[in-house]
Amino acid sequence: MPQFDATIKHIQAGLKGFTVAAAVKNIEGWEATLEKVEAPGVKGIIRDLESLKKHLHADPIDGAAIRKLVVKLGHETVTIAGKADSKNAEKIKSLGEALTAAAEEHADA
């Protein structure tokens, strides 16, 4: 899953630097990747990613709802890391932690 490093880099650079188009493209890549994964909790993450795309296309964008969803995705991703194969578990956990930290960092924004 080569998307780990690129996604983590984008998140750490700042969520506000992500254009809607770039964010949606990244989300769709993750959906495609996750559809191939057989693990408890994956379908919930895919549903939440779909919801995140809808929120990003809303007018006006509800930043609080997006932050809440990103925090939820972060926690779900960390949880699923414990169920992933050892090769990807640490990167999955890092991704979840980056999502959570980014959303919490921008809670006052």
Low-pLDDT windows of residues: none
* Overall form: globular
Helix content class: over 70%
Distance between the termini: 32 Å
How would you characterize the largest beta sheet?
none
Main traits of this protein?
mainly alpha; 5 helices
Description:
The chain is mainly alpha-helical. It has one domain. It contains 5 helices and no strands. The protein has helices at 3-13, 20-34, 42-57, 63-81, 86-105. Helix 1 runs parallel beside helix 5 (86-105), helix 3 packs antiparallel against helix 4 and helix 4 runs antiparallel to helix 5 (86-105). The chain is globular and about 40 Å long.
Give a short synopsis of this structure.
This protein is 74% helix and 0% strand. By secondary structure, it is mainly alpha-helical.
List the SSEs and their pairings.
Blueprint: H1 3-13, H2 20-34, H3 42-57, H4 63-81, H5 86-105
